[in-house]
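F.,

This is the one I mentioned.
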């Protein structure tokens, strides 16, 4: 007989058993929700979202699902990690076990998720990382903002707002900040340091949350009421600040500037419209870009980059309606012929010749009428060519800038003429960071190329007792690849004892330039160099020719490494002369011409599109040389 007490115990047992069964079933079932209307789709994209609390994360899923609605052969499955690293790891396994052909992940924690992402990437499961970049490059594609730039944009706005008289700023940090918050804060404080008339005080929240921000502001009323502006690095934090100011009677007296600028109730855009935020730096969500690239990856299309850095925009009450309009704007490519003026630095290297070939072929394929001019490494001649394109009334101008500075004037002329400019394979530095002067940059990460060159040396040419002496052959003075390949190399060199740069000179990216540097050195010195680091293959091959002519055998008496990974470099590695070449891919014609068509169609362009690159040495040269495209 079952007594009341016994009945209750039996009921509890039944409920617990049912719950345990449900958990077991849930653990086996694919995490999250599948789009049931598309059973039998050709492709499945598994989406692992860090959490579904924050509006923008929900918006990312919505963007992806909306994009998938128009693709019959693609099904989206989503999983909500609820902010837990261990659950996100489990979600990814479940999504893959369910048959996902590609994973899109927005990491709960970019450091703690890096190994899981690397694991699936190395198992040839394509993985697109969103929003928070993981260390290294063990993923298929990263899409997100440059958070340092985001912070700088907020800082520039605050500095301009306070003007020459300056003022007091409170910056809200957290004791446990995400990479994203850390980078934004670094960018913001960097601009504050450039403005001595601004007094900045940092306050620290217990955690990165709206409530922690609220509590801190309420507890710091004396410091806060003296401030002109409070900087909050996310919408979540900003909302807590705004609520605290309201409840402390300081709303409107102390202004707030933040980052994120998401749409949705109590998000950045809302707070600006309501006058509770002075400005927000808005970061696109990236869902549409992620879906477009996921399709290309699943269909093995060429030209998928390594990183797409989304463009962030400063939003105030003055431009918010225009910005919201652009966010929702549809774009359409009418297929018309597009006129493009392209200013190349010259024909200085094999890389450049391969780039010219790629761009010319792609222009034809994309119905683009291309007018290419070569500047013989002269910036003045580039300016002349660009003025010519403006007079011609081309639709778009593309520039590979000889040097990185001094472009504000000519780019302003192009902007005033209503002609957008794309930077190809080399970017520029723009004073005042007026990002409207160049729409996007498509090319390599030269700092990473320099780091990879020195990492290869560290791992393959061990320093012996004495420090190994390095000769550096530099590209054109002032060119971004010269500056950044040099800087990236030094970043690793400075952490690696046993190596020193003994001699450094310009070879201007040409074969003859590299040969001449070595010849002059040998005319004045006995050969005492252990390693030659050349910023491109042409200079390395010129150096090798001169060394051989002087009876100094490369790869025996001296290790030569370079950048570009052209066919000539592979031939030299097969011949046992050049030791290593870091890839810098010139075959970017398709990406450039797709960007041109998207731009003319009205699509919002990313801030940067960074190409995929690897490192090659003699151990693989013979097996790969036949497959090389350039
Ligand atoms: O490395 C070099 C060319 O701009 C990335 O310019 C390009 C560089 C490349 O002359 O060979």
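My design for it:
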């Amino acid at each position: 007989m079952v007594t009341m007490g016994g009945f209750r115990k039996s009921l509890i047992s039944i409920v617990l058993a049912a719950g345990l069964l449900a958990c077991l079933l849930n653990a086996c079932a694919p995490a999250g929700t599948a789009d049931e209307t598309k059973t039998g789709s050709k492709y499945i994209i598994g989406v692992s979202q860090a959490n579904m609390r924050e509006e923008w994360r929900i918006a990312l899923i919505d963007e992806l699902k909306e994009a998938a609605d128009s693709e019959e052969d693609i099904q989206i499955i989503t999983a909500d990690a609820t902010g837990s690293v261990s659950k996100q790891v489990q979600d990814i396994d479940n999504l893959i076990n369910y048959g996902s052909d590609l994973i899109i992940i927005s990491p709960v924690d970019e450091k703690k998720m890096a190994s899981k992402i690397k694991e699936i990437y190395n198992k040839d499961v394509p993985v697109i990382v969103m929003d928070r970049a993981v260390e290294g490059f063990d993923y298929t594609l990263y899409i997100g903002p440059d958070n340092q730039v985001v912070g700088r944009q907020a800082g520039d706005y605050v500095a301009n707002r306070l003007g020459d008289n300056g003022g007091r700023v409170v910056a809200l940090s957290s004791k446990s900040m995400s990479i994203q918050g850390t980078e934004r804060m670094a960018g913001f404080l960097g601009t504050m340091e450039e403005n001595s008339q601004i007094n900045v005080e940092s306050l620290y929240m217990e955690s990165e949350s709206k409530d922690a921000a609220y509590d801190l502001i309420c507890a710091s009323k004396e410091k806060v009421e003296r401030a002109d502006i409070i900087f909050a690095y996310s919408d979540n934090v900003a909302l807590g600040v705004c609520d605290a100011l309201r409840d402390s009677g300081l709303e409107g007296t102390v202004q707030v500037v933040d980052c994120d600028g998401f749409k949705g109730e109590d998000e950045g855009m809302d707070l600006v419209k309501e006058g509770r935020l002075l400005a927000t730096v808005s970061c696109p969500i990236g869902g549409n870009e992620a879906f477009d690239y996921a399709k290309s990856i699943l269909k093995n299309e060429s030209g998928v980059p390594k990183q797409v850095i989304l463009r962030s925009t400063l939003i105030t009450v003055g431009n918010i309606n225009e910005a919201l309009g652009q966010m929702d704007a549809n774009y359409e490519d009418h297929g018309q012929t597009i006129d493009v003026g392209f200013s190349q630095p010259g024909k200085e290297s094999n890389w450049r010749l391969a780039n010219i070939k790629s761009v010319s072929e792609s222009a034809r394929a994309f119905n683009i009428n291309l007018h290419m001019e070569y500047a013989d490494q002269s910036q003045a001649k580039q300016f002349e060519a660009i003025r010519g394109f403006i007079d011609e009334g081309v639709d778009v101008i593309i520039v590979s800038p000889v040097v990185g500075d001094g472009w504000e004037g000519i780019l302003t002329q192009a902007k005033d003429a209503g002609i957008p400019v794309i930077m190809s394979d080399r970017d520029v530095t723009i004073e005042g960071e007026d990002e409207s002067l160049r729409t996007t940059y498509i090319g390599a990460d030269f700092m990473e190329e320099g780091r990879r060159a020195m990492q290869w040396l560290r791992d393959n040419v061990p320093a012996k007792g004495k420090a190994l002496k390095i000769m550096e052959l530099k590209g054109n003075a002032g060119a971004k690849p010269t500056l950044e390949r040099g800087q990236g190399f030094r970043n690793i060199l400075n952490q690696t004892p046993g190596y020193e740069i003994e001699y450094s000179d310009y070879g201007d990216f040409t074969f003859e330039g590299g040969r001449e540097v070595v010849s002059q050195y040998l005319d004045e010195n006995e050969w005492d160099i252990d390693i030659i680091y050349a910023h491109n293959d042409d200079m390395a091959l010129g150096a090798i020719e001169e060394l051989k002519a002087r009876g100094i055998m490369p790869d025996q008496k001296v290790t030569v490494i370079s950048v570009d990974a052209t066919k000539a470099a592979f031939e030299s590695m097969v011949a046992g002369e050049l030791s290593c070449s870091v890839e810098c891919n010139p075959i970017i014609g398709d990406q450039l011409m797709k960007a041109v068509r998207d731009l003319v169609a009205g699509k919002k362009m990313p801030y940067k599109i960074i190409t995929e690159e690897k490192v090659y040495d003699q151990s693989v040269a013979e097996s790969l040389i036949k497959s090389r495209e350039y």
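Residues 4-28 form the longest helix (25 residues).

Talk soon.
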